[in-house]
Amino acid sequence: MSYETKREGRDPAARRRRPLPSVVWASAALVVAAAFGVHGFASRANLVDIGLQVSMLVMIAMPMTLVILSEGLDLSVGALLSLAGVVFAQTLGMGAGIGAALAAAAAVGVAVGFLNGTLVARLGLPPFVVTLGTLGIAHGIALALTDGNAVVVATPAVSQLYASSVLGVPFPVVCALAGYALTHLLLYHTKFGAYVFAIGGNRDALTLAGVRARAYHVAIYVLSGLFAGLAALLLVGRMNAAEPNAAIGMEFDAIAAVVLGGTSFERGEGWLPGTAIGVLTIGVLRNALNLIGVESSLQVVSIGLLVLAVVVVDSVRKSRLQGAQA
User: Fold this and answer.
1) pLDDT value at 40 more than 50
2) Of 60-74, 161-175, 217-231, 265-279, which range is least confident?
3) pTM (2 decimals)?
4) Is the pLDDT of residue 323 over 60?
5) Looking at the predicted structure, is the pLDDT value of residue 1 above 60?
6) Quick one: what percent of the chain has pLDDT higher than 70?
7) How confident is the model at residue 16 (pLDDT cuts 50, 70, 90)?
8) pLDDT score for 204
9) Which helix (H) or strand (E) is 151 found in, with range?
10) How far is CA 237 from each of CA 134, 161, 310, 324, rounded to the nearest angstrom?
11) Which end of the chain is more exposed for a tag (fewer CB within 10 A), N or C?
């Protein structure tokens, strides 16, 4: 049931009874293997680098969990993040401050998220088709705004902010932790979170209870767009420039992290900490493969294989558990 996962999020005893997703063991195995088998992996500098690398993925994978919990999908987040980065950089180039530029990027994210949510929730269009369309729109607009060229940021404050730290924790990691904390709060400690699980698990019951299910469904996509817009600060800060293709493909890693974490595309079943572990697993895998010189295309293959392996193992474990309970 949709509310069971919600209850488990609040009840420590229920969490202890729930079998851990296979990604937990996969992540631990990857960390141990990389620490002993890859030179330089366990160094402090490299571990900090992993944190920096996964910070942006956390920002888009957290709301992606909510989207998938609602039996949806958002293929547009990578292109939207690229577009938001372009808007952020160009707004800075007009003489605006970081706050105004970030607000403009967030507004773009919210607008695309609202469009996605409206077409999916109110018109009943398939999420795959809708977000594939907005992926093309966002990417096309980013290319048109830049003529396909990078937008260099002349404001040093952006790169300085990205390189700063709070109590010794790098600023991007602080943003990622804040993004996770906010999503966790919304999902497990608000009515909005309960409705997210219900939209994916028992939408009809939610509607019969008098809840404006469609409005909350739209809000899920708006949240996804908002996070993508805010993540533009990290994207531009890391490169000190905005490039219209910079985040294309990140939607694959975000969806992979959610699936690795045990969230189902149906029945409103999922676990937000599992997504965080999925993000870390992908970050560790990519980092280790980078250190040993594996090209990026083969890294994508490796992530795909990992997703398939974890899904198969979890499926077998679930079938055996159901058979034992029958």
Assistant:
1) yes
2) 265-279
3) 0.89
4) yes
5) no
6) 92
7) very low
8) 75
9) strand 151-152
10) 25, 7, 34, 52
11) C
Burial of 150 (0-12, 13-18, 19+ CB in 10 A): middle
User: Long-range CB contacts (< 8 A, 24+ apart) of 252-256?
Assistant: 252/78, 252/300, 252/303, 253/57, 253/61, 253/282, 253/303, 254/57, 254/60, 254/61, 254/64, 254/77, 254/78, 255/64, 255/68, 255/73, 256/282, 256/303, 256/304, 256/306, 256/307
**Cα–Cα distance for residue pair 40/215, rounded to 1 Å:** 49
Asked if residue 17 has pLDDT above 70, the reply is no
| Contact assessment for residue 59 and residue 176, using Cβ atoms and an 8 Å cutoff | yes
Residue 9 pLDDT exceeds 60? no
Q: How far apart are CA 200 and CA 127, in angstroms?
A: 13
The first and second tokens of residue 162, run together, are 């990205």
Which range, of 142-146, 207-211, 275-279, averages the lowest pLDDT? 207-211
SS (H, E, C) 178-216: HHHHHHHHHHHHCHHHHHHHHHHHCHHHHHHCCCCHHHH
Give the closest residue to 22 by CA, choosing from 270, 278, 196, 256.
278
**The pLDDT value given to residue 7:** 44
Residue pair 51/67 in contact (Cβ under 8 Å)? The answer is no
SS3 content of the chain, % helix, strand, coil (to 5): 75, 0, 20
Q: What is the mean pLDDT of residues 201-227?
A: 88
Contacts of 210-215 with C-beta under 8 Å, sequence gap 24+, read 213/121, 214/121, 214/122, 215/121
The CB-based long-range contact list for 127-132 (8 Å cut-off, 24+ gap) reads 127/67, 127/71, 127/72, 127/73, 127/74, 128/73, 128/75, 131/73, 131/74, 131/75, 131/76, 132/75, 132/76
Instruction: Please provide the distance, in angstroms rounded to a whole number, between the alpha carbons at the two ends of the chain.
Output: 17
- What 8-state DSSP symbol labels residue 169? E
Residues 6+ apart with CB under 8 A from 225: 77, 80, 109, 110, 111, 112, 113, 114, 116
